[in-house]
Amino acid sequence: MENRADNYNDIKKVNGERYIACGLKTGRITAEGIVGNDCAAFMDGAVMEIYGNAQDGLGNTMNNGYVIVHGHAGDIVGYSMRGGNIFIRDYAGYRIGIHMKEYKDRIPCIVIGETVGEFLGEYMAGGVIAVLNKNNIEDPVGDHIAPGMHGGVIYIKGKVVDYKLSPQIRTEVLNDYDISILNNLIYKYEEQFHLSMSRNYNEYIKIVPKNSRPYGKFFT
Amino acid sequence: MKKFVMPEFMVDIDYTRCNRCGACVRECSFGGLAMNGDTVVGIDENCVNCLRCRYICAKDAVKTIPYPSSFKSNYYWRKEDISDIEKQASTGSALLTGMGNPKDYEIFWDKILINASQVTNPPIDPLREPMELTTYLGSKPDRIELDENGQLLTRLPPQLKLKLPIMFAGMSFGAISYNAFKSLAIASKKLGIYFNTGEGGIPPDLYDYGKNAIVQVASGRFGVNPDYLNAGAAVEIKIGQGAKPGIGGHLPGAKVGKRVSETRMIPEGTDAISPAPHHDIYSIEDLKQLIYLVKEVTCYTKPVIVKIAAVNNAAAIASGIVRAGADIIAVDGFRGGTGAAPKRIRDNVGIPIEFALSAIDQRLKEEGLRDRVSIVASGGIRNAGDVIKALALGADAVYIGTAALIAMGCKMCMMCTTGKCAWGIATQKDELAKRLKPEKAAEQLINMINGWEIEIKDILGGMGMNMIEALRGNRHTLRGLGFNMREHKVLGIKAAGEL
């Protein structure tokens, strides 16, 4: 991950100011405090590091770059994300990764250290979400997982009760390719937050769409 | 036993004229014609009346007619109603369809009449006098300040400058072909107006037309990145559209080919779904947040448009949108077209643009907010007469969608969802799309707009006006024919004969 010394900004006592780093293509911003809504929204290549928590809309429609949160994030993280990486040390709220997209090698990733709320990955069309559940909570993800998912993949460590899985998705066991992706993401997570995470891939489940046309039969 | 489905149309071939060239068979993309040995035969159940064969046949040997045998005549249970149920009993699905509401609700444009000058305020001859149609769309300041040299001190919010008050409505690349999309771009550039990209983003090689593009941010956020936002001349946040108020967008997988997949960043062959709400807009305050996010990312250099469908409380919604910081409000009436929408929603949800527009214009005036936004009206604007009436009812400009497609060659067969458009417009199949030549289609669009421009100037001059601003919201120039008292009140116009 790049550490650019040029164009480096350090802001302190941040208290809910909105749109920090929005649309930013280069450089690095470090913020201390609580960043407001739509932080790093439409971000296109910069690095946004937060020592504190993020409110809602972190990385909204993000295109490229890195977001690192040494804390937790609110709702709507990575809405319609199309590239780049978001690493959240602790938990995140509802509606994470809705309608994430990918194309060829442009694959967005969201990694959450603890748990997430409802509607994870709704309408997902591409990309990777990993819920690492480092505190080994029994039920790490909220209800209504990925309704309308038609692309991409979600990895979750822990058990997911059946009723939470939307009709459009199914669970699978991780294969070698999944393990290499997950290993890479966990490695980056460890590097950012100076933590040591388990590598027991048997504890993970993989969520994929049943098919690429989940609503194919709805309309004629 | 083969399952019989009552066809809508019959392919009628006049064998005394047919020379068996087979052109119609090749040109029909729906499988409505075939060669049986040496003879051309029609396959009635596949015919959708797109008229490609009729226009192509050198011998006038083929025509499509309503299927001559049908269900027993029934004023209430029509053929369409029976066929719809047959289809649903077979598939278990919701019915999907294309283009705008075709139902026989009243056409209110045709009940509104336009004034003309006679003696006391003489008409102006547009052949002789210059007529100003230039229109600026954007937020206007409450007051302006000039310095001692008469130069403007007030910083104006960003404006769109149009040669005349007509723009091409949002029709996504995906819903229409690359060639059709490009035709709209070329025409808007030559005409000095704007086209709207619709939900599907802009293919990268068309960024050159960005200066004439209104880039749309819909709930699926297809193709949306900072370059896209900054490539356009304005950004439109699409909350709804007239053909399908309250629901999201749906591009069938058959129309997600390689290029669409690349532009929208979703897998090929997948249905491209735009969710019903933007999942980051759950309140009017959230809308304000998104409007200002877009302004931040574009450095406040571009007007932000919010597009809504015409619904019951459109006036209140519009008031909220103004207060949320939008520069332009686009409102789309229930006759608005679509590439794909559930039939029941298209036919039953939403209200006519005539009423929504009037309600919005009058409400914003009452609240003292009218100058803070420009209003763009759309949803079945068919001709220059409709344009004049829309302006008089309060619009600053109109979007045209269906009319533009017809100018490019659409024959209104309404089968856009199949992706088999024989005219190369609503398809992603290369062999069909290449039938539409962008330069030629653009020329047809330009011709139509030029024709409308002459008509608009004629009508304006006839009213004794030489600038479009004199018409805007000037409902005193209109009279109604056959409206009831309530409709008069909503529209704010008098009855024909009233002073």
Which descriptors apply to this entry?
heterodimer, A: 220 residues, mainly beta, 10-stranded mixed β-sheet, disordered N terminus, B: 499 residues, alpha/beta, 15 helices, 21 strands
Alpha-beta classification of chain A? mainly beta
* Order of SSEs of chain A: EEEEEEEEEHE
- Percentage of helical residues of chain A? under 10%
What is the multimeric organization of the chains shown?
Answer: heterodimer
The secondary-structure class of chain B comes to: alpha/beta
The level of helicity of chain B is: 25-40%
Strand count, sense and barrel status of the largest sheet of chain B are: 8 strands, parallel, barrel
Mean pLDDT of chain A: 93
The total count of helices of chain A amounts to 1
Q: N-to-C terminal Cα separation of chain B, in Å? A: 69 Å
Radius of gyration of chain A, in Å, reads 17 Å
The gyration radius over C-alpha positions of chain B equals 24 Å
Strand order of the largest sheet of chain B: 9-10-11-12-15-16-18-19
Q: Which overall shape of chain B is indicated by the principal axes computed on the Cα atoms?
A: globular
N-to-C span of chain A = 47 Å
Strand content of chain B: 15-25%
Mean pLDDT across residues of chain B: 95
